[in-house]
Amino acid sequence: IDLATIPQEPVIYDMLTRADTVGVFQVESRAQMATLPKMKPRTFYDLAIEVALIRPGPIQGHSVHPFLRRRNGLEAIRYPHPAAEPILKKTLGVPVFQEQLMELARICAGFTAGQSDRLRQAMTHKRSGEEMEKLRDEVYRGMADNGISGSAADEIWEKLQGFASFGFPESHSVSFAYIVYATSWLKYHWPTEFFAGLLNAQPMGFYSPNSLVQDAQHHGVLVLPPDINQSWYDCTVIPYPAKSGELSEYLGAQWRRGQGPVDDPVRIPVALRIGLRYVRNLGDKEITRIEAARQIGGPFSSPEDLAQRTGLDVGAFEALAASGALLPLGLDRREGIWAAGALGELGPGKLALSEGTSAPELTAMTAPEVMQAELWSTSISPTHPVGFLRDRLTEVGCTLISDALALEVHGKRMRVGGLITHRQRPSTARGVRFLNLEDETGLLNVVVLPQVWEAHYEVARKAIGVVIDGVLEYEDGVTNFLAHRFEHWPVEGIRSRDFS
Fold it and tell me: Bridge-partner residues for 421, per DSSP?
């Protein structure tokens, strides 16, 4: 695949408009996902504007909402002054790119090249607010000399001052927009390869590896646990049989299990094998020993063979067993954890096993225990924890997140339950918090007003698994959930990404 020649496809813009962007460069944040359905991008240049729009400069300069209203025909296009029209015409009368602010200063305030460079430096200074204030009188004098005063001058200064909080140049936005489109194209057409690449690039991005795996499965990706004889350091894409015709539907689109979207040609099914890099207690040295032993002597034939050829310690064997990586050697998770102590004492040159290798008869782990073992050992489980509590959540009146999103109604009261994966408090939100709530069917953006946060602080701030009473808010394709009340239920082994 040559990313320089991938085609522009309406289906990719449909995907972006649905905010199906977990893992997509630049547009996976809560703010971007809330803007995309309103923006409704249909062209590449729309993506450049989207990338630039959700930045501190346009937000502080009050460009975001006017642009979206004008784009959707809810507000007339206007300009602060006729002199600004040639500069702002392509962005519907509001400045989005840094160059537009520079040009406003040159045309409307008569700035020279030297003054414009001082303005640029002020906008990118670490104390940009203070530096911009030093230019205030020069800007107003220049505008007055050009016959611009009153509200028009104030509006232009507001935009200039807003961009002191950081805005993107147009060239930067266009470059980023191409990566947005390319990653969206890959996620849609080649989801297994896309998510393998994301997992191999961690730590990065907005979402945890486990959330990425959950989203991968929504897009038809088959996820397999580590395998001591097949996994390498990184996650890999391997041929793997899938049930013919098995589909995964998410946000109105469909993917064949292991084979990409339903509209693409049928391919050989593949799966994503989790790499050894994700197994607890395995560092680079241990993984190198495992890979080297396999390359020199072939696959491991037994747990004892693995121990003798690698010399792994007890902690490594415990984590490998809990992850399921020792299943090909005949050890299930519980048996492997039992045998880890003896295996950890066996290494190169030690031909006899110590006592305690053979486990007594142990019951197999239950499905919830398997999930907990996977999360402990790798931080990833293909099984979502909330699924085990679905019957209980249904009994207390909780709606699936996917069903809540599909309603597309405003003002409906309901209950939802899930895991809080992120907590955010933007500096511009006046104390409002935003939470990402995840269940086995998807993600929901939860809005928490300051008074609700204070009233339910212990649960809203500290709990992972929650039940939330509230009201659906739906506007311009965006669904939010306004929280009224929080209840706690315990879920261990997962952490949210708080205020980062």
Answer: none
Q: Which helix (H) or strand (E) element contains residue 450?
A: helix 450-455
Chain segment 252-282, per-residue pLDDT in tens: 899 999 999 999 999 999 999 999 999 999 9
Contact 79, 111 (CB under 8 A): no
Rounded mean pLDDT of the chain?
90
Distance (Å, whole) CA 291 – CA 231: 9
Q: For the full predicted model, state whether its pTM sits above 0.70.
A: yes
CA distance 333 to 268: 31
Whole-angstrom Cα distance, residue 93 to residue 61? 13
Q: Are 475 and 447 a contacting pair, CB within 8 Å?
A: no
Residues 6+ apart with CB under 8 A from 233: 275, 276, 277, 284, 287, 291
- How many beta carbons lie within 10 A of that of residue 408, not counting itself? 11
- The three-state secondary structure class of 16 is helix
Cα three-residue angle 409-410-411, rounded to 5 degrees:
125
Beta bridge partners of 443: 438
Measured distance CA(44)–CA(8) in Å, rounded: 8
Contact predicate 22/443, CB 8 Å: yes
Chain segment 170-194, per-residue pLDDT in tens? 999 999 999 999 999 999 999 999 9
Calpha distance 226→333 (Å, rounded): 12
Query: DSSP letters along 115-155, please?
Result: HHHHHHHHHTSTTHHHHHHHHHHHHHHHHHHTT--HHHHHH
Which tens digit of pLDDT belongs to each residue from 410-440? 999 999 999 998 898 887 778 899 999 999 9
Residues in a beta bridge with 486: 468
* Distance, CA of 344 to CA of 326 (rounded, Å): 14
User: Is 182 in contact with 44 (CB distance < 8 Å)?
Assistant: no
Order of strands across the sheet that contains 270-273: 223-224, 270-273, 236-239
Distance CA 412, CA 409 (A): 7
Of 447, 401, 439, 452, the residue nearest 423 (C-alpha): 447
Nearest to 309 by CA among 349, 337, 358: 349
Chain centroid to Cα 277, Å, comes to: 20
Helices of type H across 311-355? 314-323, 333-344
Sequence letter at residue 232 = W
* pLDDT at res. 351: 55
45-82 per-position pLDDT tens digit: 999 999 999 887 888 888 899 999 999 999 999 999 99
From the list 383, 490, 487, 466, the residue with the least C-alpha distance to 418 is: 466
3-state secondary structure of 408: coil
3-class SS of residue 296: helix
Question: Which amino acid is it at 154?
Answer: D
